[in-house]
Backbone:
């Protein structure tokens, strides 16, 4: 049985604050035609060999980008060619930018991609050596200094090809009302086959600025949003591919569903409000406004409310020197106010009783979510499922 291994090492690195380059630096340098653009990029992935052999060639680079609001997922499919007369083992060096995280790794085996699993360092290296001895295709990816990764590749077939796919995610940089995205790779060598597919989830035509080889290209519409396809043979990436997307709606809620594990995730994007004046102090302690938004839809009744109340108990216990004015609101098909509660010296019995007495029914419409601009802290307790 063929197996794949994925190990992402968490290494504490000091004094390497400049080891990674940010998206904003790359994009701004492109837009401003800065002379330092080259220093703000990273080289193409390269496979190194031990011994004197002909270099391994990056024959195909297929990039797929999916952007939904401030979240971007990028898959790099790389096909390497071994021009040598023997099977070799190589090390693929993959530099990434600051803020990017590897979330997927797969090797092409018998024409099919086999996805990896996460294991600890010792187990991954031991399994790698064992699978080599059994003549099975193994794979291991490891994080090194900065945000650089290395992948051990074996076998690299003689006069043959090796397929690798790495998927990364990042939260896009927000600057001046635009989300910035970049594929930072540059190279003096030509790539025989290059393709790029970008999808932007949007109900409206996205206002996009493009830089690099795709400058001037246009997006086409699909049922789910807008896409751009670009292919080029023998391309030389003299500067990175970058784009910025105008933010149309400041308030958005994004959902993701895992159909296999029956789990859901959501992220609410709210505008950054200007700082408000500090509340007047009462007595010797600090005074703050805290807003609690409690999901009282029928699906919210299945949450672990014991753990949620334990969180509040710990929070108020750790902030006994602060007097809170707690504004309690609930959300289901709309938002409802349940008055103010004073919490001082960590005592919140009256608020706890009110939370325990809330009734759960009906659907939930998260588009009705609104927050108090004057509240210094806002706690949202919800399962994130939008049922309306």
Residues:
């Amino acid at each position: 049985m063929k197996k794949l291994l994925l190990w992402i090492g968490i290494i504490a690195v000091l004094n390497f604050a400049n080891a990674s380059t940010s998206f904003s630096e790359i994009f701004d340098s492109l837009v401003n035609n800065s002379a330092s653009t080259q220093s703000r990029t990273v080289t193409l992935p390269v496979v190194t060999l031990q011994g004197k052999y002909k270099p391994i060639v990056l024959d195909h680079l297929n990039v797929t980008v999916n952007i939904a609001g401030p979240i971007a997922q990028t898959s790099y499919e790389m096909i390497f060619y071994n021009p040598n007369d023997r099977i070799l083992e190589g090390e693929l060096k993959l530099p990434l930018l600051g803020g990017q995280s590897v979330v997927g790794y797969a090797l092409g085996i018998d024409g099919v991609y086999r996805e990896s699993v996460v294991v600890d360092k010792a187990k991954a290296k031991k399994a790698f050596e064992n699978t080599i001895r059994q003549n099975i295709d193994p794979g291991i990816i490891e994080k090194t200094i900065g945000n650089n990764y290395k992948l051990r590749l074996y076998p690299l077939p003689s006069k043959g090809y090796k397929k690798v796919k790495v998927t990364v995610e990042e939260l896009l940089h927000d600057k001046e009302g635009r989300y910035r995205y970049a594929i930072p790779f540059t190279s003096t060598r030509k790539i025989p086959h290059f393709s790029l597919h970008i999808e932007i989830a949007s109900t409206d035509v996205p206002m996009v600025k493009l830089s690099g080889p795709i400058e001037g290209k246009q997006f086409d519409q699909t049922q789910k949003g807008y896409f751009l396809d670009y292919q080029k043979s023998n391309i030389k990436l003299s500067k990175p591919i970058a784009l910025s997307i105008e933010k149309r709606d400041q308030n958005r809620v994004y959902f993701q569903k895992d159909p296999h594990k029956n789990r859901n995730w959501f992220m609410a994007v709210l505008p950054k409000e200007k700082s408000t004046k500090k509340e007047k102090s009462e007595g010797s302690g600090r005074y703050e406004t805290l807003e609690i938004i409690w999901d009282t839809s029928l699906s919210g009744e299945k949450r672990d409310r014991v753990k949620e109340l334990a969180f509040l108990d710990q929070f108020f216990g750790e902030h006994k020197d602060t007097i809170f004015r707690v504004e309690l609101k609930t959300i289901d098909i709309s938002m409802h106010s349940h008055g103010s509660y004073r919490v001082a010296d960590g005592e919140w019995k009256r608020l706890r009783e009110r939370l325990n007495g809330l009734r759960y029914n009906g659907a939930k419409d998260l588009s009705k979510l609104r927050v108090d601009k004057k509240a210094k802290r806002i706690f949202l307790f919800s399962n994130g499922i939008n049922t309306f």
Q: What stands out?
A: Residues 1-27, 29-39, 279-284 have pLDDT under 50 and may be disordered. The chain is about 10% helix and 45% strand.
